[in-house]
Design brief:
Blueprint (H helix, E strand, L loop, with lengths): L6 E5 L6 H12 L2 E4 L7 H11 L3 E4 L2 H11 L7 H13 L1 E6 L3 H10 L11 H12 L5 E3 L4 H15 L1
Parallel strand pairs: 1-3, 1-4, 2-3, 4-5
Helix pairs in contact: 2-4, 3-6
């Protein structure tokens, strides 16, 4: 069912090209962007409010990231099954979802080139990527491998077409 698409969500593991995609897309669409990195507190209410209250926005991350990094670092999933189902439904309702997922080798190379301290460790990149792939299997999305700028241009064009 087609809905009035008013959001774009870009999610995926660290070193996947999300920030570059967010930046290009928000500038092309002339929309705002919001980062949904982890914050302390009730995660279900936070994400539900973010998804429900924003239009014409490009989100950098989603509750999927919260699930993946909670599994890696905080001992489990912050959402019960009912909360996950609700978030997944609201998340998909009027959003275009882009899953940024390059090869593990690309992620490792990007990680090695970064000159700033990162929360994720090099040896956690594979686990985070695998968790994202599993979580995104059931969610309709555009796959962005972030391998070339031509691919970035193509994904932006596809999103713009879908928004018309």
């Amino acid at each position: 069912m087609a809905h009035n698409l008013r959001k774009v969500v870009i999610d995926g593991p660290d070193c996947a090209g999300k920030s570059t995609c967010v930046e290009h897309l928000k500038n092309t669409l002339r929309w705002d962007s919001r980062s949904l990195h982890h914050k302390e507190g009730d995660q279900f209410s936070r994400y539900l409010q973010e998804y429900a209250s924003a239009d014409d926005v490009v989100f950098d991350r989603s509750h999927i990231s919260e699930q993946v990094y909670s599994a890696l670092w905080r001992g489990g999933d912050p959402f019960d099954e009912k909360e996950r189902d609700i978030l997944n439904e609201v998340f998909q309702y009027n959003s275009i979802i882009i899953f940024a997922c390059p090869s593990l080798e690309q992620m490792q190379e990007r990680y090695s080139r970064r000159s700033f301290q990162q929360q994720i460790r090099y040896d956690e990149l594979k686990d985070s990527r695998d968790l994202f792939v599993g979580k995104m299997e059931e969610i309709p999305h555009f796959l962005y491998t972030s391998s070339t700028y031509e691919e970035l241009d193509k994904i932006i064009l596809e999103v713009c077409k879908k928004l018309k």
